[in-house]
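Hello,

Our lab assistant flagged a job as stuck in the queue for most of the afternoon. It eventually completed. Since we weren't sure the result was trustworthy after the delay, we are filing this so someone can double-check. Below is the sequence as submitted and the structure that was eventually returned. Let us know if re-running is recommended.
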Amino acid sequence: MQEDFHYYATYCAAYLAGYSHEDSLAVAYSAQLVDLCSVSFLDRIGGPRQAATTQLQAELTDASTDPIELQTITRIWASFHFLPYDLYARKAGCSRLYLWKYRLICQPNGALVKETVDLAKGRGLQAAGLAMHILADTWAHRNFAGTPSLVINNTDRRFAELLPDGTERPIAFRHALSAPDDLEKDLFTNTMHQSDENSIMNLGHGRAGHLPDYSFLRYKYLPAWADYEECVKDNPADYYRAFCQMIYALKYLRAGEDAFQPDTYDEAAAAPYEEEIRAILEKRQLSASQDWKAFGEKLSGSSIEAFDLGRWQAQYRAAADKDATFLGRFILAALAQKSMVTNRIFASGNLVAGFSVNLKEKGFKGLRDFSALIRYFSKEDAQ
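-- returned structure --
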């Protein structure tokens, strides 16, 4: 997904869930920040590098593929963008390493979605926004894994767009990273094929380019993990489900008393606007930001300011208690999420994301985690 959904659509979902305009902006800001909180960003503000929720293209280009670096990459991308669906999935006739990577394939409504939302409960707007980014990405990024893997993430070169009139149109790819995708020609940018199993080119949905990020696209393709059998992806349907699930999850985080349940959607809250929402999702365009912005401003009657990465940086740098700042609360939420997901992967017997300690149960052990996380996990509420 892109800024159009993570920032503007998340604002709309938060407002429909009962948040005020200002609180909806804070949730939306935090959701979008997940795509920008890199090591480079954290170095600029003096934050802990372990809180990185993404890796910039330049950072990935410079990354090695030794075991330690692969674990670092996996902890980031599996925790925040490709949340694993079933860490105990079975597949016959494969090696242990293949099975470890296969179990990292992302799908919506897995057990870790519930844990992600529950972890954000009572811990502030930043944690809520971070959780909404992860939840939404389980719909857009389904069928791919957040670890470099040719045998999982590779695709056959044959892709076809499924048009509304029932016809199909071949999709072509190029590797010009500076060129925008050409919707008129169905020409998109993807990563270059690399036969190295652990190449960065085989991370996530790189082999499918930005196709998962466009809400209007319906397409079919042949993924490696499914033995190159045909798979159909209906982005408009998935994005609508993601939007309705965000409303439900945000209501739970704001005031819900009952337990969060996966595969549950607040379609009633979206129903008065369903036609308008679906029209935005179906519109053939590279970015739907302006349409979501207009819809959100109609909902709230307030202006939605553009996302500004620098907005909270001075506050964080100057603060004596950085954990109490906007970015400090986001950083703690990110560290907690990464710790939780990494621990669940490790506890399943899977070493692709490295070793982990369950901080909530075992306490601080000095393993590149922060003692602040112990306080975070022990809190009942957050400001």
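-- support follow-up --
The delay was a queue issue, not a problem with the job. The result is valid. The CA atoms of residues 177 and 350 lie 33 Å apart. The chain has two domains: 3-144+242-378, 151-234.
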